[in-house]
Each structure stands twice: as C-alpha cells, then as structure tokens.
Specification:
The chain has six helices and no strands. It is elongated. The chain has helices at about 1-50, 55-65, 70-85, 90-100, 110-115, 125-174.
Length: about 170
C-alpha cells in the first residue's frame, strides 16, 4: 500500500512539474515567434520596397526562409492567394492568421496586431504599405521587449509552481 502511495505521489509531482515546464516553454516560444514575425515583416518590407514582387511570391519566399510555425502563416496565405478565389487580400490574411494561431504560442493581443495587416496589405500603395509595416514592426518590438522583461520571472514562476503545486497536492492527498 505504501508503495502505491509513493508511486502515485511520484506521478503527481512528475506530471505537475512537466506542466510547469511546458508552460515555461510556451512563454519562451512566444518570444521566438515574435522575433520570427519581425524578421518576416522586415523581409516583406524589402520585397515591397526593392523587388516589387507580387504578394503571393513574396509570401512564399518569406515562408521558405522563416522557421515554423511562422512560416506556415505566410505559406498558407500565398497558397490561398494563388487560388484566386475572388476573396480580397484582407480576407485571405485573416483566414491564414486564424489557421496559424492555434499552432502558435502567441497571445490574443499579438493576434490582433497581426490581423491589422489585413487592413492595408494589397490595398494601399507601396509607400503606405511600407509605413504601416514599419509601424507594425515597431509595435512587435515593443511587445517583444515587454515579453523579454517578464520572461525571466514568469518562466521561473511556472517551473516552481509546477513542482510546488505537485508537492502541495501530494501532501493534501496523503
């Protein structure tokens, strides 16, 4: 009987510790994804400014150069644009973001910022698109800065809470 209790306690502590580490990992992944988004939008600015590539080609090129899961956002948007369903760029971008979001570590606030691209991309002239993308880049940098500051504290807290929560649960159950 004691061996069963010990095994159960070990399972509880292990599972809550893994949960805490998983939450901490998700917070670190968010920071990486924000960086990848910044790189992707910087590439998009270059594509619009210098090469004047059509958006489907630009998105496809960005999707091939950026790491997952951000790459999937651009690849999905490029594929949908190539289908020429008659939807506007805004609708295609929103659909791509909605498909991308469940597979990412980003927050709802980040999603709203990424969705803001749909209001000007493919609709306005080159200069306006560049200005809007630069503004978006600035906002992403600010969000990344905030995330970086809070990462150290919250990452440690998630890990400690996982371990300590498991210990508390074991003590309550014994």
């Amino acid at each position: 009987m004691v061996l069963l209790k010990l095994a159960g306690a070990l399972l509880i502590i292990t599972s809550t510790t893994l949960l805490g580490f998983s939450l901490a990992y998700k917070k670190r992944e968010r920071l990486k994804e924000l960086g990848y988004l910044q790189m992707a939008f910087q590439m998009l600015i270059s594509e619009i400014s210098y090469t004047a590539s059509p958006l489907p080609l630009a998105f496809e090129g960005i999707g091939e150069k950026i790491k997952e899961p951000v790459s999937q956002l651009f690849i999905k948007a490029a594929r949908e644009m190539e289908k020429c369903r008659g939807d506007g760029m805004g609708e295609i971008w929103k659909e791509a973001v909605e498909d991308f979001f469940p597979h990412s570590s980003l927050r709802e606030r980040d999603k709203e910022l990424i969705l803001s691209v749909s209001s000007f991309l493919g609709v306005s002239d080159k200069v306006h698109q560049e200005k809007q993308l630069k503004l978006l880049m600035h906002q992403l940098k600010e969000i990344e800065k905030e995330a970086r500051v809070s990462l150290g504290r919250s990452e440690r807290m998630c890990k400690y809470l996982g371990v300590l929560g498991g210990l508390m649960l074991v003590i309550l159950l014994l």
